[in-house]
Specification:
The protein has 438 residues and is α+β, with helices and mostly antiparallel strands. The protein has four domains: 17-117, no CATH class; 137-153 and 216-290 and 369-431, Nucleotidyltransferase, domain 5 (2-Layer Sandwich); 155-203, no CATH class; 304-356, no CATH class. Helices cover 41% and strands 14% of the residues. It is built from 16 helices and 13 strands. Strand 11 (323-327) and strand 12 form a beta hairpin. The radius of gyration is 28 Å and the shape is globular. The relative contact order is 0.13.
């Protein structure tokens, strides 16, 4: 006969949270392989030895990580969801008889102890260290890229810069922003000057990348190609010019912490400027990056690819076999008058090439682009784009929730920690001996 399930309500349920979480659950793997006790050690000096006990900082951090692992970026919603998820309660060590911290607790700690101790950057670097100790990060071949993330501010909130002083009388965010600008040694580097500034998030930048102009930031990643582990994170204003500077900063930070540089670096054409190529060349890093070209002369005429560079003499040979030597800051061929190809090359009296001051480094990058290693590195570079897709589609950071650069940086670090943790614990679970359970 057909069964008819009747819901029943029991006053008591007897079970252990431990028994409800599967052995292969992501949170169990993280708890098994990663120890977060170092959080208390890093924050010890931020707490007084007297007074009432505060909320355990490890508890708050575990709650935040759950949110980023499962795409819950709102702390208010995270607290609501935590009441119903057994695995989340087990991971955060919250029994049913324990009160879940109020969502406002996160803001208080973020503005206080967590921000002052630079906890989120230290947490990110601690996880990278664990990845390296486990043999997951090779550090030989890396890729770099940046992605635009929309700010938590509407473009209608922008006002002319000269009106900021007036608005500061009634707007606390603008008042704090102007006070920071007046500091002789500001904590944050100055944001690029803009004609209009958002009163909601003054650090956000009005920019276009892959769509209409919006307020936002760039999230920059330095990634180990072999493991897809993020080894560097940098939050910058949404300006293309800041991507190369972020790449240099992340590479230098990696060398400071780990004592060596990558052998190669892959990136898209945005990073193919002469200054970065020379910077990499000086440090022995092979740049697998397409050189960024600038328009050279009117369309329909010979481009710079028709000219042959002679590195020993640092000059070019034109299509007719004549050398172009330096005259001032340009290369000129004075013998163009009787050249049979002049009409195809220039409409002026003679052909002139504007040569980059870092031309030797550019030429070496041209040569590398013809090697098999270049194609391999460009395929590996796509892993960075996959990480940004995960950041926006799974972690939910398509639009930022927090405002101002220092809090945006926090979100980027926590997102990278969540992404690295997934790969680290799955790698450790495969390589570690099987743990028998009773």
């Amino acid at each position: 006969m057909m069964g008819n399930h009747s819901p029943s309500e029991s006053l008591f349920h007897y079970f252990r949270l431990e028994d409800q979480v599967p052995e292969d659950h992501l949170l169990r793997l993280i708890d098994r392989h990663v120890d977060f006790d170092f959080v208390r050690a890093k924050l010890k000096d931020r707490y007084s030895d007297t007074g009432r006990p505060s909320i355990d900082p490890e508890l708050l951090l575990r709650m935040l990580l759950v949110g980023y692992l499962y795409g819950v970026t709102s702390e208010r919603k995270l607290v609501e969801e935590l009441r119903m998820h057994l695995a989340w309660r087990w991971f955060t060590r919250l029994g049913f008889d324990q009160e879940i911290p109020h969502h406002s607790t996160f803001s208080k700690n973020r503005h206080g102890r967590f921000q002052e101790s630079n906890l989120f950057q230290q947490l990110f670097e601690e996880i990278v260290n664990r990845c390296e100790q486990a043999g997951l990060v090779k550090g030989e071949h890396m890729s770099v890229d940046g992605s635009f993330v929309q700010a938590n501010a509407d473009h209608h909130s922008r006002i002319p810069r000269e009106q900021l002083a007036e608005v500061a009388k009634v707007n606390r965010t603008v008042r704090e922003y102007l006070a920071e600008l007046e500091q002789e040694n500001p904590v944050e580097p100055p944001v690029p000057q803009q004609d209009k500034v958002s009163t909601t998030d003054p650090d956000s930048t009005f920019a276009t990348k892959g769509g209409p102009a919006r307020l936002g930031y760039y999230d920059n990643y330095l990634v180990d190609n072999s493991s897809c582990i993020i080894v560097g994170v940098q939050a910058t204003p949404a300006r293309l010019s800041h991507e190369s500077a972020a790449a240099r900063a992340m590479i230098e930070r990696y060398r400071e912490r780990h004592g060596y540089l990558p052998q190669t670096l892959a990136a898209d054409t945005t990073y193919g400027n002469g200054e970065l190529l020379q910077w990499l060349d000086e440090r022995g890093i092979a740049p697998y990056i397409r050189v960024k070209e600038n328009p050279n002369g009117p369309s329909g005429l010979y481009g710079i690819e028709k000219f042959t560079y002679v590195p020993e003499e640092n000059y070019y040979i034109c299509p007719e076999g004549k050398p172009l030597k330096y005259v001032g800051i340009s290369l000129h061929n004075r013998t163009c008058r009787d050249c049979p190809q002049k009409n195809l090359c220039t409409r002026a009296k003679f052909r002139s090439l504007a040569i980059h001051t870092c031309e030797p480094a550019r030429q070496r990058a041209y040569a590398l682009a013809k090697t098999p290693g270049f194609a391999i590195s460009q395929r590996a570079r796509r892993k960075v784009e996959a990480l940004f897709a995960e950041l926006k589609n799974q972690i939910g950071l398509r639009r930022l929730r927090l405002r101002r650069m220092r809090f945006v940086r926090e979100q980027f670090y926590l997102a990278a920690v969540a992404q690295n943790l997934k790969r680290l614990v799955r790698f450790l679970n495969k390589t570690a001996p099987h743990i028998a359970t009773a």
